[in-house]
Amino acid sequence: MKDYPLMAAIMISFIVTVAFLLALRPVAVSVGLVDRPGGRKLHVGDVPIIGGIAMFIGIIGGFVVLGAANSVTFGLAFAFFLLVAIGALDDKYAVAAFVRVLVQIAAVLIMTFGTQLYLQSIGDPFGLGAIHLGPFALAATLIIALTVINAYNLVDGVDGLAGALALIALIAVSVVGGMSAISTSIALIVAGSTVGFLLFNFPVAANRPVRTFMGDAGSTLLGFTVFWATLAVSQGEEAAISPVVGLWFASIPVYDSLTCIVRRVMAGKSPFKPGRDHFHHTLLRGGFRVRQKLGILGGLQALYACFAVVSHKFGMPDFALFGIWCGLGLTQRLVIRAVSRRHRLYMIRKLRAGELGPYRTARVRAPR
User: Fold this and answer.
1) The model's pTM
2) b or e along 220-237 (b: 16 or more beta carbons within 10 Å of the residue's beta carbon)?
């Protein structure tokens, strides 16, 4: 019986999100809150960018049904509002980067002081004992929060990808956190809203007439939630996991963003300008379709999350988990690039044998 309020909250979050995704479509078109194809954008037709707004409303509906009116939910709701508001403005007007970062910092500070939750310890990543951050805790919280928030924003380049990666992370947090934890309840409510959004964003033909993007409003909302939920289950005396385990829950977005930043800096380019050097771009050049790219990257993230949960259950030490995580991060692009090249060669062989349709032929012949 005690699980019924949570189940109802998850369902309401899902239903309200779906309802507002439908209701806001004409509004988005009338005010120009749409993504138009061109340049790096390969989608067909104008697509409403209302996913983040609809998810936010759905999440608030879930909070109301859950009945957990306290400093945690109020603080998160206010932080969510700031992120969605600046994200929606950016989707419409392209707000300056420093303004977006300032609002993200404000959201993290509201979370920190409203929920009394911050990064106190990073576990034992070097095998020398637990490392407590002391006076550097707030600064570390801000840096890592901004990294995760913007990692989900940067990875949002394929239909369904950011939502699927966040959903995997939220489910992983729920598994390790236990059903009685408030972090689990909030993670599952956001997961319910995310599933509602994915009905309109997953790359299948059936939803093409109502295809919707989440925009910066949605990707930053999900990145923030993944960070907060992971922080909630990895800090304090009642922590369920080590922070090192939590690293694995957002591996693909973090690997992708850090790899792009390092490569751009080494090439003398601005790390903040958009480019075509993300993992999904590498797979695109290999001739993979959208669902295949989603399957590869989502599958890797699911594998990493499962590995982290199982390793935690069996007591793998932090330094081993951290070493493996870093090793994967250093080689992830090389692995994805090798997979892409292998698939491209396979597609070229099929092209020469005349076994490809016009679309696939154009994709294989496209410049790399």
Assistant:
1) 0.93
2) bbbbbbbbbbbbbbbbee
